[in-house]
Specification:
alpha+beta; 3 helices; about 30% strand; globular
């Protein structure tokens, strides 16, 4: 895979974590999945009372604090071949909840404007983007990790921005939606759902979602921001599996 052209480090925002974080060019991002990390198959059955889905042999850790069921997956980082377009549910969940860097697992950089995030450029979508945007991408910590991420993700190629987020809120999940069925619930489609959604307990989650509030765009690298339609056209050629479709949240 050819590496995209990225601006020199001197032109990128200079987070305070640079000295402590120096990933190599071949570093595999922390949240990436490896080929030996297969999904652990488990039948999906109706939850008691018909309020959602369950595993027949549930154990502590199968659900999050909001009661949402999570996919089971083996944890074997470094085993097999890195699958850079796929996300490991356990590591993504850890990085998002703890605000850890998606590349190196170090604490994300933070200054007076907020936590540092790396996003696909959506400024062409709406005037106030990325305010209240939903994302499954955990934050980042340094110039080096920004360069690693933009060099390995084809969806960020020449189309990324760095954003400071003053108030990130982890408030939803991305995963497989099920509907009631006979004899078992039936999978429908992949969805993003906030925890307040009435059907969130019917989602088998695979990634955490954060709403980004209080945003300041720090740096953009794009000849011209791509519209949502243009980004979808790109994915029609190379289907995107690394992140969820986003849904805007109404401001309160």
């Amino acid at each position: 895979m050819n590496s995209p052209t990225v601006p020199p480090a001197a032109s990128l925002p200079g987070p305070s974590g640079d000295a402590a974080c120096a990933p190599r060019a071949d570093t595999v991002p922390y949240i990436a999945r490896w080929s030996a990390e297969a999904e652990i198959s488990a039948p999906v059955v109706p939850a008691r009372g018909g309020t959602g889905i369950a595993f027949p042999d549930e154990i502590p850790g199968d659900r999050d604090r909001h009661g949402v069921l999570w996919v089971r997956r083996e944890v074997n980082p470094g085993a097999g071949v890195p699958q850079l377009s796929l996300v490991h549910s356990v590591r993504q969940r850890y990085a998002m909840r703890r605000l850890r860097c998606q590349v190196c697992r170090q604490p994300a950089d933070r200054d007076e404007q907020g936590v540092l995030w790396l996003l696909e450029d959506g400024r062409a979508d709406r005037p106030d983007w990325p305010e209240s945007e939903l994302t499954v991408h955990p934050p980042v910590c340094s110039v080096a990790c920004i360069e690693t991420a933009t060099g390995q993700c084809r969806y960020l190629r020449d189309n990324w921005v760095t954003v400071r987020v003053n108030e990130p809120v982890v408030d939803g999940v991305y995963g497989q939606l099920y509907r009631p069925g006979r004899p078992l619930p039936a999978p429908v489609t992949k969805v993003t759902r906030l925890y307040e959604a009435p059907d969130v307990l019917w989602v088998l989650a695979s990634q955490l979602v954060a709403t980004l509030n209080g945003c300041t765009v720090v740096r953009a690298w794009a000849p011209q921001p791509r519209s949502a339609n243009a980004r979808e056209d790109l994915r029609a050629v190379s289907p995107r599996t690394a992140s969820a479709p986003t849904r805007r949240r109404q401001k309160r």
